Amino acid sequence: MECTKCHNVKNFEEFSYKNENEKIYYLYCDLCRKKTQIIQFKYKEKAKENYNLKKINNIVECECGITYVCFRNYHIYRHINSKKHKNLLNSFINFDTKNK
Ligand SMILES: [Zn+2]
Ligand SMILES: [Zn+2]
What are the beta bridge partners of residue 17? Predict the structure, then answer.
């Protein structure tokens, strides 16, 4: 059976069953499957790392004085449209007019 990944023709012993009852084999040999599993694992680790980095780097300091973490653009819109933000901005405006 030819492995669809490394294209080596290998014995069936080098393939695992995807479904043992129906005698369905994985299309990748065990070696390739292991390799892809490692790559997937590394990818997941990297994604986790990136997420943590983003957490640190995407801190937005808003004009209302609130600091928040923003991963996506819609987080900004969500904050700007939030009552908290509007109330804080309004209180600033009121504060300014009172002092004039
Ligand atoms: Zn292979
Ligand atoms: Zn704000």
Answer: 25
Q: Where are the domains of the chain?
A: 1-56, 58-100
- Round to whole Å and give the CA distance between 55 and 38: 26
26 alpha carbon – ligand 1 mean position (Å): 10
Given a contact cutoff of 8 angstroms between Cβ atoms, the answer to whether 35 and 42 are in contact is no
pTM above threshold 0.70 = no
Neighbouring residues of the ion ligand 2, judged by CB less than 5 Å: 62, 64, 66, 85
Looking at residue 99, its pLDDT comes to 60
Structural Rg of the chain based on CA atoms: 27
pLDDT in tens, 60-77: 888 899 888 887 888 888
